[in-house]
Design goal:
This protein is α/β, with parallel strands linked by helices. It contains 17 helices and 8 strands. The chain is globular, with a radius of gyration of 29 Å.
Length: 427
């Protein structure tokens, strides 16, 4: 994974090579071989004349004559302009080709660190990608395992039919800002989540929780045992080990003081780009879900989904600072389509706690008849006495959220902890 900062530094250190790559300039087909450390010449063949400084007199004459004829044609304003222009371009093509090959030849023969530094970064990037992918794959497995048990406990056959015919939807929710180190984390997050969309899940009759990995790197097939009880109720397609495609979407909203700084200096474009990408992928899955449910008379609240998708599109495209309502609406839409959600920030204990508790109380309100007057009380209780303070204590030794007075004012109202639950020093 290459972050924006790394790409900029790499471009500055390898400006010539990067320029050639950007313009799709290629080397001659059989002139060079990689010997493990650097490129070396295998067979030079006929070198371009521009390398040794001996240019073709005939080509120069042809170009000069073509330009002269073109100028004369323009002056006469007759219909030979196009024909003369084509002749000039045709005469320029061999020279352009030789110049391109000559520049590439010089770069490959150069005894410096430009070319080698480009290739030496590859192992580091590969290791970084593997580290991120392993974390993402673990989150994917955990989500699917929990969703599987939840659907089985509720005898929700709709979930298994959706897995068989559409696939598994996972929404990743990020609260990272687009400033400083968090921007790099967000870029890694995005690339990893996109890579997970190439993963496939296969269910087996082995003991519940047993899993196996196969396939190519970053195109993994995840075989998961479901146990005999769940295996007996699976649709025939899943019993025949039909691969389940994974659809991953990412939505992000920075909510802290660093995001406010990013908004002021104009470095917040990454957030908008990610949300538009997530919106497009969510709409694709939504259209497949709607078509399948409608055609097969599967229980599903399509009307409610239709009503949600319109404001989701509006909020995603508007790109409003601290618009956490977008995240809440996406979470509700994903739940209606039997999907899962993963929430994270920098340390997954402060901003994440605010988001998870808010959505938990929202579910109580929507699905379990929590009265409106009890919403804030339930929210304060979860944030003060629920499992989230314990998470903070296990991570930092303090059972308080790491917010100070200034940060509290920046947070959206929905994400502000109750008095007495914040003040931790370790972030």
């Amino acid at each position: 994974i290459v972050t924006g900062v790394q790409m900029k530094e790499q471009a500055e250190s390898t400006s010539s090579y990067s320029t050639l790559r950007a313009r799709n300039w290629s080397a001659p087909e059989t002139d060079y071989v990689w010997d493990g450390e650097r490129y070396r010449v295998k067979s030079v063949g006929s070198r371009p004349s521009s390398i040794d400084g001996n240019s073709s007199t005939k080509q120069e004459t042809d170009i000069t004559m073509a330009i002269t004829n073109f100028i004369l044609a323009v002056e006469k304003k007759n219909n030979t302009i196009g024909r003369e222009l084509l002749k000039m371009l045709a005469s320029l093509e061999p020279l352009v080709t030789q110049s391109r090959q000559g520049l590439m030849f010089m770069l490959l023969l150069e005894e410096n660190k430009i070319f080698n530094s480009f290739f030496s970064a590859t192992p580091e990037i590969e290791v970084r990608m593997n580290q991120c992918y392993s974390q993402g794959l673990t989150a994917l497995y955990t989500c699917f395992h929990v969703s599987l048990l939840d659907a089985f406990s509720r005898e929700d056959m709709t979930f298994f039919k959706i897995l068989e015919n559409i696939g598994y939807l996972v929404q990743f929710q990020s609260l990272l800002s687009t400033h400083s180190a968090e921007l790099t984390m967000l870029e890694d997050h995005w690339i990893t989540i996109n890579s997970l969309s190439h993963c496939r899940i296969v269910l087996t009759s082995e003991e519940l929780g047993v899993f196996d990995l196969s396939g190519l790197a970053h195109r993994v097939t995840l075989s998961i045992g479901v146990g005999r009880e769940i295996w007996e109720i699976l649709p025939s397609g899943l019993k025949n080990q039909k691969p389940i495609p994974v659809s991953t979407v990412l939505f992000t909203k920075g909510v802290n003081e660093q995001q406010m700084l990013s908004e002021r200096v104009g470095t917040n474009s990454m957030e908008h780009t990610i949300n538009i990408d997530g919106l497009c992928k969510l709409e694709v899955y939504y259209m497949m879900y709607k078509e399948y449910v409608t055609q097969n008379n599967i229980p599903g609240d399509v009307e409610k989904l239709d009503a949600l998708m319109t404001p989701i599109c509006k909020h995603a495209r508007a790109h409003v600072f601290k618009d956490v309502k977008l995240l809440s609406m996406v979470d509700e839409a994903v739940r209606l389509m039997s999907g899962s959600r993963v929430t994270s920030c920098k340390s997954a204990k402060d901003r994440t706690a605010m988001s998870v508790t808010y959505d938990s109380v929202s579910v109580l309100s929507r699905e379990h008849c929590l009265v409106a007057s009890g919403f804030n009380n339930a929210l304060s209780a979860l944030r003060s006495h629920g499992v989230r303070p314990l998470n903070c204590k296990k991570n930092t030794g303090s059972g308080k959220y790491a917010f100070n007075g200034f940060q509290l004012k920046i947070l959206p109202k929905e994400y502000r902890p109750p008095i007495g639950s914040y003040g931790g020093k370790i972030t």
